[in-house]
Amino acid sequence: MRIIKENLSKFYGGKILDVGTGRGDFIKLLSENLKGYDKIVGIDSHEEILDATREKLHTKNVELIKMDGENMDFEDESFDAVCLSNTLHHLSDKTRVIEEMKRVLKTNGIFIINEMFCDHQNEAQMAHVYVHHIGADIDMITNRMNHNYTYRREEIKEIIRSQGIKILDAFEFKYSDEISTNTDEFEEIYTAVGKRIENIRQSPRYEEIKKRFEDLKEWMNKYGLAGATQLMIIGKK
Length: 237
Ligand SMILES: C[S@@+](CC[C@H](N)C(=O)[O-])C[C@H]1O[C@@H](n2cnc3c(N)ncnc32)[C@H](O)[C@@H]1O
Fold this sequence. Notes:
S-adenosylmethionine-dependent methyltransferase activity, Methyltransf_11, Methyltransferase type 11 domain-containing protein, SAM-dependent_MTases_sf
């Protein structure tokens, strides 16, 4: 996490927008590592996710609003920084959301894009990628939310450039260096994922996903589990 401090502490965030706030992990990371900020506004299209975040996120000067990133209710050029963390692979219309982010960003403001990637990971990190991909498939089958597989590292940069964002800096980081071999933790994950898989029994993809889950358990028991490395990009419009 030292690399995060080194890179983010250069910036005073001012008024920040976080699109696809989810459980608020990225807001916490920003608040702890930027030089400072005035306010963070987090938006998410799912009210029930924001409700859970409101209960557990106690970061100061944060406002959470249910809003679709495709149609934001903010004035042009009203934020000093706009962020998108682990949400790029959730967007049904990336161009529309990124256009909106550009619209609400001040001329000299910064983009902060963070995304875990699916290649260049060690075996324990691949367990995270495989769990994530099974979760993404289940989210799509159950219509819980739009959820694609995570991109390859270079693909993320290509997407960002193709959306007209100028990349000023890019670096990689991990939330933790730990490789877990804690079988109690694994059992909790297996139970939670197993339950979700049973909910898609009627899907034509049930057997295939169940087989991937069995393979994943073998993989994780052999190599352990670690958080995937993420790519953080600092850019300008
Ligand atoms: C993996 S979570 C985000 C995690 C969080 N940003 C972090 O880094 O800790 C992705 C979130 O994006 C939200 N989302 C997807 N499409 C969206 C859109 N068009 N507008 C707003 N939120 C969206 C989903 O509801 C979900 O909560």
